[in-house]
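Handout, section B. The chain below has 60 residues.
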Amino acid sequence: MSGEIICESCTHYVYNEELEEYECLVCLDEDEYAVFLHSGSQRCPYYRLDDEYGVVKKQM
């Protein structure tokens, strides 16, 4: 599983009720998107773990 893109656990991956599907909220311009697609890397540089417990700890 190492090196795979795992969008389901990313903070930026949210459900869009209008489209009734999940989407990534990271806003890439055309050049950034092309670099990302052709980099050969399976790791997303924008991935951030959706850690709800970490958020709660900071609020306490």
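Note. Residues 53 and 59 are 10 Å apart (CA to CA). Compare this with the example in section A.
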